[in-house]
UniProtKB/TrEMBL annotation, chain A:
It comes from the Archaea. Keywords: Biotin. This is Biotin carboxyl carrier protein of acetyl-CoA carboxylase. NCBIfam families: PRK07051.1. CDD domains: biotinyl_domain. InterPro entries: AcCoA_biotinCC, Biotin_Carboxyl_Carrier/Decarb, Biotin_lipoyl, Single_hybrid_motif.
From TrEMBL, chain B:
InterPro entries: CT_C_D, Cyclophilin-like_dom_sf, PxpB. This is Carboxyltransferase domain-containing protein. The keyword Glycoprotein does not apply. GO terms for molecular function: ATP binding; hydrolase activity. Residues 12-240 form the Carboxyltransferase domain. The keyword Nucleotide-binding applies. Keywords: ATP-binding, Hydrolase, Nucleotide-binding.
UniProtKB/TrEMBL annotation, chain C:
This is Biotin-dependent carboxyltransferase family protein. The keyword Nuclease does not apply. Residues 23-313 form the Carboxyltransferase domain. It comes from the Archaea. The keyword Repeat does not apply. NCBIfam families: urea_amlyse_rel. Keywords: ATP-binding, Hydrolase, Nucleotide-binding.
Length: 83, 299, 322
């Protein structure tokens, strides 16, 4: 049985899918991620902060475009998780 | 004999900064008249120790105070500042200050590396900051330009931005003063203790960080010692004080390294002499007056 | 003692600030929202200047090794003690061995954790505030990290009698609904055209992600300077002035405006065009990145009146808690 799990923004700021414009994104749709793994960055107060997955699963949807403005609690990434 | 051309200051502008600051602009342009006026008024204010005023900040051609409006009404602050200004007469004024030997390694490798990294932020990407400044100010060579910068002392006319950063205004007639623009785009990096120039001011960067001034060299001396290890920082973690006179002296890498070693060991003592500064005498014969000042230092 | 088990994005030890050193470039630092900081201290029976922990955007988790009365004031942050939810703006008891876990901010940007006895770091120039830019004061001059151990001062007498006392709803600010920030225009606002000054108070400003304790960088209408031949010493850009002192709360205009906050740079060469009044600096500090606000022009007497009104509110809160 698979269910959906949504990773939300822990702080407001700018959403980054990779740590450097020339790097590959942390995750793509279809990637498996494990709990604690960095899935994106939020840039705020002149610093970048890792956002880590709070579950094991497979990325099914990335809801925000790179460098979009996000607020606390915004849904960022959807995972399919095995129950 | 060249003199400092006196400037008649416009009427000062008294401006409220919210409910708790008054900012006073003495002139829009920089001049010794404006700076000495700011220095004299703020020194008098400090002596008066007015209840409620808790920050007194002289600046290049302006000054600012911060106060508690519960203790002193903002309008009363302005009246007080006006009356202090009225009582202050520069022609009779002189103050005790100090002249300090300030070794500088011009064209050092660290600021050179930094300025080359940020060429895209600069007016003239094909020249160094020194080459650009020398050319802009009509010098034939970088060496001549450095000789001019180190050739007459500089007065600390303001301290701030971050703790310990002095703005220094060279004590020469206006037609001898260096003037350069700041970077088109500020750098995101500057080495600590870098000696830079922007507008008509030399600045010394206390710590590594962003900056927009043209970079000329690096001093081995600290302007900020947060741990107060060095003897000259016993009273304050910041060395330069408004009114200090800094005598920049061109040194070589060997001397730079020797001084750094002593600074890092905490044993270095700054070469400082106390002097009484008279604006009138300085205005009348700046070169002669500077010579007298530096003689005190070099003994 | 309390141990930091999760620090949050930016959590620092702050009191009401460090004064008397602005002329050597030392900003006051201290709580960005002094109202919330003060009320937190009232609730636990501290002096209003006792050090609290300021948490920005995200709360932290703190493990207590002794019983203490605490209060959480400021931006809305859901909080639990060993998984039991607690109220904000209320004196709450934490027992030895328990963990206070504070989540992210929803209404506002910053919250203050006041602990009876205060956070006991070594004062520097009479203040326990942290100034991270130079690495001074507070806890090792930096924001808190996992594993940091914070000493506490001796709790004030009768602190435990306060458990359960709470601030009346009418006094609790609804930060997200405050979008008008009052400004005394002036300083060097002669550098801006009249049309530009008009736009500054009629069009909205958005807080940028760069906004921090040094300054709130805003984005909004294009600024327009009065063309002039630059005075001697100012530098060539139209935004340049002969370097001058920046009031705390002043709006400098390198292009888009920056409002200088508690860790302000104390001076520099950009024109300043007005100053956010002291009361509203605290409200501005509660704006999150991307939020909108408007500048409202007031005069110095309005600014003093607003300050007096806030002091009366603080006195009323204090009295209600006695």
């Amino acid at each position: 049985m698979s269910t959906e799990h949504t990773i939300t923004a822990p702080m407001p700021g700018v959403f980054y899918r990779q740590s450097d414009p020339t790097d590959d994104p942390f995750v793509e749709v279809g990637d498996d991620v494990s709990k604690g793994e960095t899935v994106c960055l939020v840039g705020v107060m002149k610093n970048f902060h890792d956002v880590t997955s709070d579950a094991d699963g497979t990325v099914s949807e990335i809801l925000v475009e790179n460098e979009d403005a996000i607020d606390v609690g915004d849904a960022l990434i959807v995972l399919e998780t095995e129950e | 004999m060249s003199t400092i051309e006196r400037v008649t200051l416009p009427d000062p502008r008294y401006e409220f900064g919210g409910d708790d600051h008054v900012f006073v602009e003495l002139d829009e342009a920089m001049s010794f008249d404006a700076n000495f006026e700011a220095m004299a008024i703020t020194q008098q204010l400090r002596k008066k120790d007015i209840d409620g005023i808790f920050e007194i900040c002289p600046a290049n051609a302006s000054y600012m105070v911060r106060f508690e409006p519960e203790t002193i009404d903002p309008h009363t602050v302005v009246e007080t500042l006006k009356s202090v200004a009225e009582e202050t007469d520069l022609s009779e004024y002189q103050w005790d200050t100090r002249i300090v030997d300030f070794p500088v390694l011009y064209e050092d490798e660290w600021t050179h590396e930094t300025l080359m990294r940020f060429r895209d932020n600069h007016q003239d990407p094909d020249a160094t900051d020194l080459e650009y400044s020398a050319q802009l100010n009509g010098f034939d060579s970088v060496d001549e330009f450095i000789d001019a910068h180190a050739g007459a002392p500089h007065m600390v006319t303001m301290v701030g931005f971050v703790p310990g950063l002095p703005w220094c205004f060279q004590m020469v007639p206006k037609d001898e003063q260096i003037e350069v623009p700041k970077y088109v785009q500020p750098r995101t990096d500057t080495p600590s203790r870098a000696v830079g120039y922007g507008g008509a001011f030399t600045a010394i960067y206390p710590v590594q960080g962003a900056g927009g001034y043209q970079l000329y060299g690096r001093t081995p001396l600290e302007v900020l010692d947060t741990d107060q290890n060095l003897a000259d920082f016993a009273e304050s973690m910041v060395f330069p004080q408004p009114g200090d006179i800094l005598d920049f002296r061109r040194i070589d890498r060997t001397e730079y390294d020797e001084i750094r070693e002593q600074i890092e060991a905490g044993t270095y003592e700054y070469t400082i002499e106390s002097v009484s500064f008279s604006p009138e005498e300085f205005f009348a014969d700046p070169h002669g007056y500077n010579e007298m000042l530096t003689e005190v230092l070099r003994g | 003692m309390i141990t930091v088990s999760r620090p949050g994005v930016l959590s620092t030890v702050q009191d009401l600030g460090r004064f008397g050193q602005y002329h050597i470039g030392m900003p006051p630092s201290g709580a960005m929202d002094p109202f919330a900081h003060r009320v937190g201290n009232y609730l636990v029976g501290n002096d209003e200047d006792a050090a609290t922990i300021e948490m920005t955007y995200q709360g932290g988790a703190f493990e207590f090794d002794e019983d203490r009365v605490v209060a959480l004031c400021g931006a809305t942050m859901a909080a639990t003690i060993d998984d039991e939810p607690i109220n904000m703006w209320e004196a709450v008891s934490v027992e030895a061995g328990q963990t206070l876990d504070i989540q992210y901010a929803s209404n506002g940007a910053r919250s203050y954790l006041a602990v009876a006895g205060g956070i006991d770091v070594e004062p520097l120039m009479d203040s326990r505030s942290t100034y991270t830019l130079i690495g001074l004061g507070g806890y090792e001059g930096r924001s808190l990290e996992e594993g940091d151990e914070l000493a506490l001062g001796a709790p004030p007498e009768g602190a435990t009698d306060r458990i359960g006392s709470a601030v009346d709803d009418e006094y609790i600010p609804d930060y997200d609904s405050i979008d008008s920030i009052r400004v005394v225009f002036g300083l060097c606002d002669y550098r801006l055209t009249d049309a530009c000054k008009e736009r500054m108070t009629t069009e909205p400003w958005t807080v940028t992600p760069d906004a921090d304790r040094v300054g709130y960088r805003l984005e909004g209408p294009e600024l327009e300077f009065v063309e002039r031949e630059q005075p001697f010493g100012a530098g060539t850009d139209q935004s340049n002035v002969v370097d001058l002192g920046y009031p705390v709360g002043s709006i400098q205009v390198p292009q888009q405006p920056i409002v200088l906050m508690q860790d302000a740079v104390t001076g520099g060469g950009y024109a300043t065009v007005g100053t956010v009044i002291s009361v509203d600096r605290g409200y501005l500090a509660q704006k999150r990145t991307h939020q909108e606000l408007y500048f409202e022009s007031v005069n110095v007497d309005d600014a003093v009146a607003a300050r007096k009104a806030q002091q009366e509110t603080l006195a009323a809160i204090r009295k209600s808690l006695e």
